[in-house]
Amino acid sequence: MPRLSTSPLVLLISLTAVPVAAQVTAADYQRAQTLRPQSEAAALFVPDTPTWIGTTHRFYYRRSLANGFEFVTVDAGTRQKQPSFDHGRLAESLSRASGRAYTGTRLPFQTFSFNDALSAIDMTIEGVRWTCTLSDYTCRTPEVPPLGDIRRGIAGPVRGDVSNANPRPRISPDGKWMAFIDNYNVAIRPIGEGKRVALSTDGSEGNYYDGASIVWSPDSSRVVAYRIRPGYRRLVHYVASSPQDQVQPEHWAAHYAKPGDQLDLEQPVMFDIRGQKQIAVDARLFPNPYDLSDMVWRRDSRAFTFEYNQRGHQVYRIIEVDASTGAARAVVSEEPKTFFYYNRTAPTLQQGKRYRYDLADGKEMVWMSERDGWNHLYLIDGATGAVTQQITKGAWPVRHVVKVDEERRQVWFSAGGMDAGKDPYFQHYFRINLDGTGLTRLTTVDANHLVEFSSDMQFMLDHYSRVDQASVLELARAEGDGFGRRLEIEKGDISGLVKAGWKAPEVFVAKGRDGTTDIWGLVWKPKNFDTSKQYPVIEYIYAGPHGTHTPKSFSAYSGMQAQAELGFIVVQMDGMGTSNRSKAFHDVAWQNIKDAGFPDRILWHKAFAAQHAWYDISRVGIYGGSAGGQNAMGALLFHPEFYTVAVSYAGCHDNRMDKIWWNEQWMGWPIGPQYAASSNVDHAHLLQGKLLLMVGELDTNVDPASTLQVVNALVKANKNFDLLIFPGEDHNAGRGGQYADYGERKRFDFFVRHLMGQNPPEWSAPVTSTSSQQ
Predict the structure, then answer these.
(1) CA distance 583 to 464
(2) Within this chain, do residues 557 and 674 fall inside the same structural domain, yes or no?
């Protein structure tokens, strides 16, 4: 037998990855679209985030089972576990009351709350609040009034229709007076019999006093309220083309403030009760509010405070007003060159950066600020506004404040990025003294942690995981005897999931546009991955600056994995312009939403491709929804040399068309050329590549006209594209709701056809009859 030889050419070909050639079939789609139930059934005893029950030392959590889920209640003192309720009886009762079919392991909610007596539970099912008593398992829901033709919507800092209806009177702390609104003005009356006294006479429908804002001073000598000059009440109109209860279309409208709209102008007004007169409040420090917070009195009645968020979000102040003179001063004034992220902190990847805690009735204040380039905590002198101590410090951001212990002068907080070389988005928990000493670590495992503390801070529940490690729930003493010792309450078992072929997404880190900053991302491969082939790449994008969005915790199922099963590599990453890193990292988004971190994303792709021949960056697609929908289409407009196919769900394609709070936060005010520069509508003529737009006709989050305006611009530019409108669907159209499977399949088809270069299965082919009748 002659010996076989291999020429250099043949050897080169054998070592070079080749494009995927196998035809995608309906069976491949079926495998992708059934991945969720199969994966979730194979991951056992995976705990969800726990919840403490009121002020007790008992908590509950939900854990996965082979056939669904169950809720478990645990006593932290005795360590006893038991079902939170009779799952079967609750399912039967909910089924009878709702007309739906539920089972004990497939209850239609993920969280619930006990009433104070622990005799009933409340939960929300499909947007409706339900109450179920645990003695007889009777379930009921309150009567829901008709929505009407004009609905609340997303009005932002603009109130709805002005009404002279008087809210509940506000009783003075000494019990002698009630304050209320009468004909748009503030009035008082003695409790019981007595004559009404008008404190103001300048209120009118166009300049009214807000009864909900009335606040008495603790000594009952003063009352304050906001006077409101109404802004523009914009309505977005909707037509439900296919309502379920009638043949003809249905029209309704919702309040919806947009960037540039005239806002309600709030001004605090103070009244002297004994003198029955107004004390003028100096407004020079808060001339142009986006909004003002609720007014809060000092306990000794010497002053009241409120927070001033200036239009454009480049000035944020804590204002204190002297009760005797009406003089106002700024205890704190944040004036960044870009933006102040005014949403409150929260223990999630999508949280704001505002936190305030007043100590000793305002003599000191714990305040969160990015003034040194990172999000940190400061101790402020309440009298002078000077920083007396930077409590936390370093090239890492504080993420959330759990509690300030005024007596012990300690603060409990979470942070990310404190560990060099580790994932900077992993959240860990700490305790530190207000003088900056005594930093104590409360979590140690290299994972993403979410800790829930009992109301007295004696116990902590540490729920942690990574994308490659199933969730673990541990109970520990938060301080005192036993501090640091942990008891495992639940640990997910994913051995069956791994046996079924599950693999965790691969973590990959590359340098961003500055050559030094790490960009963190994930890579999903199909289960039948073959290194000898080349795979087209799909990026899932959501570049909203309000947070970071690449998963950091375990999930048995991922939509990215389902997309990969058709023969793609799917990736996700957080580029510059997103949160939870340095202020400079975040500031890239300022007045520049179209950037979306693309320079970092493209470098990340290229760095990964340089290490893996099977990663074909000549074929890169992208998809996303909402802000991600804007990003996905923007990829084809602003980076067509790299991205060639895009699917956009419910995109806010022009930031002038979207909700005011989100867009002015990042794009600024007044409206200027920066809005046009980031507009997909204004740049629609630049479209290259293949584009699929999807939108729900009743989207109350992003005005659906945003998608239709980009459609109009594309048609005028003579561009080819695809459009899918979902009747009766809201913002999640094509990603959730009744058309979730259809929207997913259309996305699959689009990438198979235009990125993979194959024809998807013919879904509209005639069904072959199996009947024996001729």
Answers:
(1) 27
(2) yes
- Portion of the chain with pLDDT greater than 90, in percent: 90
SS3 assignment, position 280? coil
For residue 711, the Cα-to-chain-centroid distance in whole angstroms is 28
Residues 182, 230 within the same domain: yes
Place of tokens 């099977």: 614
Q: How far is CA 344 from CA 288, 356, 385, 579, 691, in A?
A: 21, 9, 21, 14, 37
Q: What pLDDT does 127 receive?
A: 87
Q: What is the pLDDT of residues 293-314, one digit of tens each?
A: 999 999 999 999 999 999 999 9
CA distances from 326 to 34, 283, 408, 594 (A): 65, 9, 34, 45
Q: For residue range 659-705, what is the model confidence (pLDDT) as tens digits?
A: 999 999 999 999 999 999 999 999 999 999 999 999 999 999 999 99
Q: What is the pLDDT of residue 479?
A: 84
Structure token digits, residue 716: 């005028």
Per-residue pLDDT reduced to its tens digit, 1-50: 333 333 333 333 333 455 655 799 999 999 999 999 999 999 999 999 99
For residues 25 and 189, what is the distance between their CA atoms, to the nearest angstrom? 77
**Same domain (yes/no): 183, 301:** yes
| 160 plus 140 within the same structural domain | no
Other Cβ atoms closer than 10 A to 695: 30
Residues 533 and 508 in one domain: yes
Residue 732: inside a domain, yes or no? yes
Dist. CA 227–CA 203, nearest whole Å: 8
Q: What is the number of domains present in the chain?
A: 4
What distance in Å separates the CA atoms of residue 423 and residue 520, rounded to the nearest whole number? Answer: 8
Q: Distance between CA atoms of 404 and 391, rounded to whole angstroms?
A: 12
Of 279, 310, 333, the residue at which a domain comes to its end is 333
The whole model's pTM is what? 0.94
Claim to verify: residue 544 and residue 670 sit in the same structural domain: yes
**What is the structure's pLDDT at 18?**
55
**Domain contains 174:** yes
**Assigned domain for 79 exists:** yes
Sequence-separated contacts (24+) of 177-181 with Cβ below 8 Å: 177/216, 177/220, 177/273, 179/214, 179/216, 179/223, 179/225, 180/211, 180/214, 181/208, 181/209, 181/210, 181/211, 181/214
**Does 96 lie in the same domain as 175?**
no
Count of Cβ atoms closer than 10 Å to residue 604 Cβ: 25
pLDDT at 758 over 80: yes
Left (φ > 0), alpha (ψ -120 to 50) or beta: where does 118 sit? left
Peptide bond into 243 cis (omega under 30): no
Residue 320 clears pLDDT 90, i.e. is over it? yes
Taking only the tens place, the pLDDT of each residue in 20-32 is 557 999 999 999 9
Q: Which helix (H) or strand (E) holds 26?
A: helix 26-33
* Assigned token pair, 467: 């994308």
Is residue 250 located within the same domain as residue 204? yes
Q: Which residues contact 509 (CB under 8 A, 6 or more apart)?
A: 518, 519, 520, 521
Radius of gyration over alpha carbons of the chain, in Å? 29
- Residue-level length of the chain: 774
Q: 455 lies in which domain range?
A: 336-482
